[in-house]
Fold these 2 entries.
Entry 1:
Amino acid sequence: MGSHFVYDFADGNKDQKDLLGGKGANLAEMTNIGLPVPPGFIISTDACRAWMESGREPAGLADEVTEHLTRLERTMGKQLGQADNPLLVAVRSGAKFSMPGMMETVLNVGLNDESVQGLADSADDDRFAWDSYRRLLSMFGATVLGVESSVFGEALDDHKHRLGVKDDTDLTADDLRDLVATYKGLIREHTGRDFPQEPREQLDLSIAAVFDSWNTDRARLYRRQERIPDDLGTAVNVVSMVFGNRGPGSGTGVAFTRNPATGEQGAYGDYLENAQGEDVVAGIRNTLSLAELERIDKTSFDSLLAIMEKLENHYRDMCDIEFTIEGGKLWMLQTRVGKRTPQAAFRIARHMVAEGLISPAEALQRVTGQQLAQLMFPRFDECADKDLLATGMGASPGAAVGKIVFDSATAVEWAGRGEDVILVRKETNPDDLHGMVVARGILTSRGGKTSHAAVVARGMGRTCVCGAESLNVDVRARKLSVRDGRTLCEGDVISIDGTTGEVFLGEVPVSDALVVRHFEGELDDDADDLVGAAAEMMTCADDARRLRIRANADTPQDAARARRFGAEGIGLCRTEHMFLGDRRQLVEDLIVADDEAGQRAALDALLPLQRQDFTEILEAMDGFPVTIRLIDPPLHEFLPDLTELSVHVARQEDAGAVDERDRVLLQHVRRLHEVNPMLGLRGVRLGILIPGLFEMQTRAILEAAADRKDAGGDPRPEIMIPLVASVRELEVVRRRIEAVAAEVAEERGEVPHKIGTMIELPRAALLADRIAKSADFFSFGTNDLTQMTWGFSRDDVESSFFSTYLDNGIFDVSPFESLDTLGVGSLVRLGTEKGRATRADLHIGVCGEHGGDPSSIHFFDELGLDYVSCSPFRVPVARLEAGRAAI
Ligand code: ADP
Ligand code: MG
Ligand code: MG
């Protein structure tokens, strides 16, 4: 209509959420598809933004409002707040993204001491008119005039109490008239002014108040949490009122076109007779089900169902709605695509495909990897008897049962002998890492969702409850005391629920999630509706995706599981853990050996053990590529702690008898000690400095492959060199590896293999064109690449300043959780382009944690990488997201 700021419902549609807000856009859409929406108009978010920028009402807005109000009055055949048969309006907020309960709505605008009588006469119902007026006074008083809303609530309760009535509906017209007088007095008392009687002034003040509600503290806080930008602004909807509070034949309700909790087909909702606005959700009286509405008012119920069907067909998705029935006539007041639980998302997507409403590709867009991950967490049996000890914060989901241990060393020791343990700490720090790795779950009595324990546990997919403040953790005494006086000791069994934050005494039975049992091959597609839905979405995703999915797996068990979960190879097989345990002694021997013969002996002892490791993994992944990373961490990680050993030797000196091996070992530990091991002697640097080490590993890999071939298998090993910064490092190591390969070929015949490198240092990404000359493949190690690009070490900083950075909006999300596409992502892009400039067919993957993160996967797909690799449990999530990325 040539207007700037104001739009009639007839002029908008559902795709204009930016301009009209979600509520306005959908009111417009419903109007235009012929649904019964009370007439009205929308003041756009442009007006809100203009207002926020200038701090004043934008010029021309008042005139436009007048123009649209006049038209609305003509349509309705009555004028705002006129003395007889008045037009009343609702003034409703509505931003692009729904912000439930954050902003304001004022109903019944236009009522005053005169028009309340006019409304009573026109409806022939005094009670209804005074009920509407008292509602206006409380909403206007709170929203526009800033009186605490509890002031009105308490006055209402006082009245009811004095009159001895229970429900609002028991108040008579006279009671409500008294209440109006009380409310007016309260407004005067709290604001020093009278409730404005002039209808247009009421309207203008309400509009301004709704715009202002965009910037309340709670709205800002909510937006920060939900990552909604602060500069979007809200729209304001001015809608003619319809009345659910006009006696028993009227009412108001909310409904979903399908069950949003389970996904079951069929409408689902609540209805409240003789009620208005938020009464339904406020829980002031017991609501009725839609089935009960059908009994009371079949005609309205039937129209409601017909409308819901029309909405689903139109939006092609589950919708939620707000409606009101006024004297047997149904009105639609709001709709939007409804929020749902993960299981509902999967079921609804499947059902809608079966109903022919959406295509399989669309169904895939209706579910997320995040939702699938939630469906995969184990659960405690709902029916089991439980003894609740405390409730903390559910920081990393899952259900874990185990024996209490209070420190990492004990965790490692007990887990090593096959016990399930829960690591219980006041709070964790990087020293607890090895304990966290082996524990079933982690419980802390301090810290929030961004504490070290929470962040690290989520990263590892380990169940974690943090901040269970009613627990007292006494690490020294090895006791855990509960507020009710009970005390638990090391070794006592507890169960923790990382979703609800609950901590239970003893063992609560756990069941694997149904979808996991399906991925494990224990359940058929048709065992359950949800399983069927997940299976169907996985098939869609596998058909659609371009990216291949591999797993990070260091053991044959993990490799086998990854394969069952759909992995198409191993993208990262770490070899360092293979040097722990009994083999630590051999590594020590290698390091302390003072001649070549000694080194040779140590390496010779390690060789068959390594070969066995690789044979089993290659067997589990037969026919698929297995990328094995040669040893990466600094060697001192395999040696005793410097301080402990120093003390040990000093004691021996005091006693006058020092063990020779301890003395030599101490020299080497001192020699290898690094102030900053992350930037020290590790990765390819080790391979160059310690003669024979990479060669031994190469031989073990190739001999294992030869054994597999002899056994009729199809081994596809890929040897990967970590931490390369210069092509010359790679050349040196590659020559040595090739020499070993030639020897093995001589002895055992040709063994197929590739030699490639990780790209995990900025220099490697910058010079990827040179590095590609000596590499058959690249794998971006995005964990190290993130550390090296940002210049901080994950183990040190996550617990120190990340939560502050998140709070201050410096990070939206930890760069270790989701790839920093701007910075680290640029290096990945550059490395890919440069690598492929040298070798067009260079095979490129990603093996950091980011390989299992949904938004990072979409980024890697866009860059045209060949695969991502993630932990076995993330493999289905990655498959799903790779499919979603491709459509
Ligand atoms: P929210 O965004 O918090 O849901 P709404 O603007 O939808 O706020 O308003 C809250 C409630 O007020 C609605 O659910 C509805 O019951 C009632 N309401 C809104 N507009 C009208 C109207 N024009 N006539 C009658 N009731 C209305
Ligand atoms: Mg609403
Ligand atoms: Mg690395």
Entry 2:
Amino acid sequence: TSPHKRSADKIANTLQSNGAGPQDGIPGKPGFKSPSVSEPTEPQEPLPPKADQTGPDTVSPTGQPTGADQARMAQSGAYLTTAQGARLYDTDHSLKAGPRGPVLLQDHHLREKVMHFDHERIPERVVHARGAAAHGVFQSYGTAASVTKAAFLGPDTETPVFVRFSTVLGSRGSADTVRDTRGFATKFYTSEGTFDLVGNNIPVFFIQDAIKFPDVIHAGKPHPDREIPQAQSAHDTFWDFVTLHTEATHHTMWNMSDRGIPRSFRMMEGFGVHTFRLVNADGATTLVKFHWKPKLGVHSLVWEEAQLINGIDPDFHRRDLADAIEAGAYPQWELAIQTFPDTPEQTFEGIDLLDPTNIVPEELAPVQPVGLLTLNRNPSNFFAETEQVAFHVGHLVPGIDITDDPLLAGRLFSYLDTQITRLGGPNFAQIPINRPHAPVNDMLRDGMHQTAVPRGVAPYRPNSLDGGCPFQAGADTGAYVEVPVRIPEATKVREAPESFSDHFSQPRRFWLSMSPVEREHIIGAYTFELGKCYEQAIKERALLVLARIDSELCEQVAAGLGLPAADPTAPPADVEPSPALSQVGRTWPTDGRVIGIVTGPEGDLDGVRTVREAVLEAGMVPLVIAPTGGTLSAAQGELTVQRTYATARSVEFDAVLVAGNPGMGSDAYGARDAKGKPAATSQPASDPRVALLLSEAFRHGKAIGAWSGGEGALEAAGVPADAPGVVVGDSGATVLEQLAGLLGAHRVWERFTVGG
Ligand code: HDE
């Protein structure tokens, strides 16, 4: 028996025996009541940590390894103590003058407990407050070694990483599947110091200069008077900003596309956005853009589904990431680079590489894989790790340098500065999740939350009292040396270069690269978001912007808004599409896809069993849905029900199967007679909740299958058996076989009405 099992049994036994445990009183002392249910408190060895509970390997700022043990403290010892280590006999009752008397101020445990609780919250991130994270490893292919001397990109190198995904606009408790950009921030704990790649799932940004960041965020955040809407861009201030600052047009178009509502963090691309400068062992430099390519492909929700999920499971993305890792379906991305010659102009094929509203199409500069990221361990404690992790674009290692992108410059200030408010002082690098794995030997001293105990008396250089230590490294002993880039003679100005003024050709390229169904989604998104604005002037200005991208796009959105289409103020740019931008038309692995199997006591339970096994075999997740919870008896044994008609909703599933006649879940959902009583004689063919499940799955382009009488449920849901992506067969096995092929395409795209 495992220790976990033993402990669970013990709790169950104690609950049954209903007896008093030792914590109910100090033996021999009167006045302590026995609660009716007691916990087991007999001291015992702590349970071994779960596989995912070892903290990060850390090195203290003085270079001493601290290991996970120092970071892990509560829940690991036999006795409950105060923060000072004094053992406690009771943590449920305040110290009182008699059981009905006043609480005494001298209760130091009460005061310590409530004081600590009062300060449990820290300010949430001003942007990217809502996030989820995981530990993992980065395995370098060594293919970048010719362009960078960064050790973690060298051959045969494995580097521990921590990755945090986030939404941008919403507060910490907001929903996951809102239309927004997603953060994709990676901390590489390299042997040469920590490298942070603080990217997004969209390769461009709203603005070209960091000085506008407070403005764009003020515009995107809820309105300051009523503080609504939460985590939405569908409101006046956002659209006011992005239509007045037309450099935002490209990013906004990505947000309005399917990229704004990812299916899963595991199915998003990531981008470093800015152009960085790599330097190799010979000192040669290369300009570079970073990409993360998900092994599972890039997939999205459909808008109605995204909206439903925000109510049904606001933690959808967070849960998906944690579940996949716990199940051993480790998400993977390849890190890849686009490289460009480091010329004085810093342009490539006419594209300004310093303008963060530009991409370089993959067709012009191939995306070359340089390593593999695998996320394989969930954090043990959300606050300690996911909340306290502090990323910074200035956390660089030798071999990776910055460029003069003005957006990047402001970030280099902001990410340090914000931690002082958020993490309470300048020593946040000492928090376990932020500790470098390379030895640290700085001369930074004191400050709030100093947890290191520095030795020596001379934290300055040069010194003679500490033997001259620490010494400075040189380029040949691993020092981070900035590339000595020549700065041309210039006049101080507050201006953007002329090349930053093309705001429309790149969004047009994106639009032209989309498949018809993706364009339809973009039109729908603009129509929805602008339809939520109140100001006519903002809608009209948005139509002017759309007219600069494409007349069809402008006309369709205008029609949806009930406004006349705008005339373009200049002809649309002449650009080639980049097919790599489309998410449709390729086949991807289906690992971790969730298959709902609807059945009931009268269903084909042996068929369900066979299909479950086949689904698991294919690396996907089968979930049996039945009228009520518990188990169903099949000839070959019991079948566990994972979802009931009350808890299942289509959004959780990538495909839905109906195994036989699923039957009714509850009288409450059946037909009623004139007096409102259940009318046993006129039951509908299918439970309305199953009908809803199927009709939603159908509308959202998901694969659907049925056999052994399950067709009746399809009919009751208005799902035509001969529609694309609907498979009706003789047995579960044959239906699943055809369905598996459909899942590789993510959706049954033909089902979306285009141009209708
Ligand atoms: Fe950020 N950004 N940002 N950002 N950003 C923050 O730092 C900022 C930008 C990104 O999971 C903050 O620690 C400025 C681009 C991610 O902890 C803050 C500008 C990109 C995260 C900040 C930008 C990003 C942040 C808030 C304009 C993609 C979450 C909390 C120049 C390349 C990291 C914090 C995490 C977080 C500032 C623009 C990505 C305020 C000034 C472009 C993924 O410092």
